[in-house]
Amino acid sequence: MSKEIFGKAQSHITERAGEMVAFSDYLAAHPELSEAEYETSRLMTEKLRAAGFEVEYPYLGLPTAFMAKKKNGADKPVVAVMVEYDALPEIGHACGHNLHGTMALYAGMAVGEAMGDVAGELRVIGTPAEETDGAKIRMAGEGVFDDVDFAVMFHSFAGESFADYRSLGIDGFDFAFTGQTSHSAASPWRGRSAQSGMLLFIDALNMLRIHMHDYCRLAAYITEVKGAVNIIPDRAVCRVEARAPRQDIQRELTAAVLECARGAATATRTEVSWENFEGSFAPMLPNLTAEKLAEETMAEYGVICTNGHPATGSTDVGNVSYRCPAIQPEFAITTRNLDLHTREFAAATTSEEGHEALVRGARIIADICLKVLTDEELRKKIKAEFEAAKK
């Protein structure tokens, strides 16, 4: 990669560092929930259009998603920068989407500034609702990433940075048990308790836990029981999330959860049905070549990564990683060991430390993208590993 191309991208970030900080802080002060990020997405697309990108917004039938493209000459290679921007109920941007969404946006615009000297296509993709239904799941399923050579985003983190991020897949279901009402004193033998079916199901899930693979997780809570103390309830609903570190283990765990539901219904003479309440998140498919690139580039900017992290949280980037080589390094925005999804972490995104991380992260993402765009051998190595991992 020529120093001139690198310099153009980095100068763009330097000139707009204050603007970046102000925008991230504005998003922190005006959080918008999943699938309702109307103002945020509008402001982002305005910036991309002003930077010379061809923008489709709304995109893919999603009112707050967008696709921004900038091409120079050839259709290939294609590099995608993914942008997140939804907030959480009550605690706002406690996952840092205001910060790393802004980071991705401005990194993309910086690379776009250097595209006059680089052949290929850059895509800056607005991906709403990561905290709920995961727009990237739909995008991946509809082939948005199938022709992409490399996709990247950083996620805000605390205490340490690492490129070898591993995630858990998720299948989320609402289970509805139905039975027959009857008076619980006068004629209990005529009733079939939907509540009993649901409680037996939850007991079965608790027993299933001792047989799960490492890093698998099961969570369940009751959302609805209808009736009165003297009436046997005929409807009971609970919500369940099953998480696993690999797709094959995810399928096995989900199948076991459904068997538990059927068994509990049979044992209590009730009926059970279920439906997904969110898209199924796939676990990350690792790409060590791309992770090494990210780790080495972060080191060039003074960010030293730790290694060997087990799968913990979940992300819809996992679904992207089965369609194209994709990474989501965790990037420390504070040296403090804070938990994500807390008010303290939300506050860290608007701190001086968070502001410095924002600008540094944008520099690193832009550098990574330009390295991939300009190094054919690197792209071939990333692609070869991706194809081998899928098999």
What does this structure look like?
By secondary structure, the chain is an alpha/beta fold. Helix content is 41%, strand content 18%. The chain has twelve helices and twelve strands. It has helices at residues 3-15, 17-29, 38-50, 97-114, 135-141, 194-208, 247-267, 288-300, 317-320, 343-348, 352-374, 376-390, and strands at 54-56, 66-72, 78-83, 120-126, 150-152, 155-157, 169-178, 217-226, 235-244, 271-276, 326-327, 330-332. The protein has a six-stranded mixed β-sheet with strand order 1-2-4-3-5-11. Strands 8-9-7-10 form a four-stranded antiparallel β-sheet, covered by helices on one side. A two-stranded parallel sheet has the order 6-12. α4 links the parallel β3 and β4. α1 (3-15) runs antiparallel to α11. The radius of gyration is 23 Å and the shape is elongated. The model has no long low-confidence stretch (mean pLDDT 96).
Which short descriptors sum up this protein?
alpha/beta, 391 residues, single chain
